[in-house]
Request: fold
Amino acid sequence: MSRTPRALLAVAVTVTASALLLSACGGSAGSSAPPPTKQIGQNDINPMLRDEVKDGGILQWGVQAYPANFNMLAIDASSGDIPPVVQSFEPTPAIADASGNWGPDPDYVQSFKLVSTDPQKVEYKLNPKAKWSDGTPITWEDYKSEWQALNGKNTAYQPLSTAGYSSISDISKGSDDYDFTVTYNPKLAEWSNLFNVLYPKSMTSNPEEFNKGWKDEPKVTAGPFKVGNLDKTGNNVTVVPDPNWWGDKPKLDKIVFKYYSSANVEVDGLASGAFDFASVASNIDAFKRTSAMKNVTLRRANLPNYREIVFNGAGNSILNDQKLRVAIIKGINRDPIAKAEISQLLPDAKPLGNHIFLPGFPGYQDNSAGYLYNPDEAKKELDADGWTLAPGAKVRSKNGKQLSIRNAIPGGVKSALDEAQLVQQQLAAIGVDLQIVQDDPNTFFDEHITPGDFDIANFAQMGDGAPPVNNAQSWFTTGDQALGNSGRIGDESINKLLDQASSELDQDKRYALLNEVDKQVWALGHSLPLYQRPSIVAVRNGLANFGNSGLASIKYTDIGWAK
Reply:
């Protein structure tokens, strides 16, 4: 199970190319060697010109969860499978290339550019052809309304994150409704990925409508596709081309976002024809099975994805004690977890030393010293914190309460269960009882992670290449609007450092500030990064302009089947 941070929660992540440069894949039957990775800034989508792609056809796209909210900016829209559904029919004013560089989507924005640095101002010129499905033009007012919903000033709104938008001090109309200027105070170095999805003023201008009005269905769209059918029983969403679309006509007749309950089900579906691609990621069984499939190619790229254990520091959790969290971290050996999960795909897999950056990208440094596996030290710290082990007892206790921790994982996700069972064994050795609770994967984030119904939880953080400050602000900021910080762990010192990093225009200084944040995150026992997640996708042959898009945004109009 994964939570996609999108542009609000992105992180610069990769793995060194040599780790996967072992063999070609190409879907050769019986192959079990790891496929080669792509270099940073490359993706693997079987690119074809539009003339080479036939008109018509269906794409069967597997998703792990039906959207809890079709407003992907809302707090309960944290599932990683919501953005690809929503972005097929809602505006994407900012899009990324394969290197993770953000620029304007010409279907919605003719240009955006920095016109002043002091004060910082960015001018937008919109595409006047763009219209909402109700016929209303998309204008500067939609952008202003979305900013006001996301800037954190009106606490009636419940956004997933205020990162970036809280730095905007004003949005003012220019020469007409398709021209406006955004002013930043404080300055925002990483501004170009804002408005990576846009919603109509009719939704964002009202807190109740923003929070709950789109839970059941999207009421207004403005993309190359529109909603054709919502099957809440089967948890499927079907989108079809919108005849009022002003850009390139979609090649596909429809995309069916189809629910699957586990990775095995998705791979089974690829084999049977029920799905047209399946995520392999770090699942070695899925890799072996898909490698042997005929007419299937394994596609790979470097993505900002990693597995982690998140701690709940809120008052309702036994882990609201910082000393206890740090002691628990020292009782978890990440080496065997990484080796067990991905060593066959990444022979050099190692535990991560940073919550914000990963190896291979600018800014990475290992800040984990002092928080590595050390069970003897963990025992001493538990004793000092009052969690003692009585003679003959297997579980520590304090003031008559046993040290029992509830580990929430999504049911049917093998990697999560494997990790949890390894951690369970390790913590038992230091007198900690770990109770594994497998929750419904379709409601895992909505009903458990978002409301804080866990002590620790295992899932993947998945980014799309947006700037690291935005990611860090969402994950580590505390306060009323820090809704992306699932464990509610942080402090004012981290908040201030993140604010400084957000407004620092010098990249080296900005990254130094973020590494200081990471050091403090380690000290607080916020979470435990496990390992880089390989990005491997098994795709049916003949599917063009789709596969493993890497850091790039998906161009839905060009996806189709080769002639």
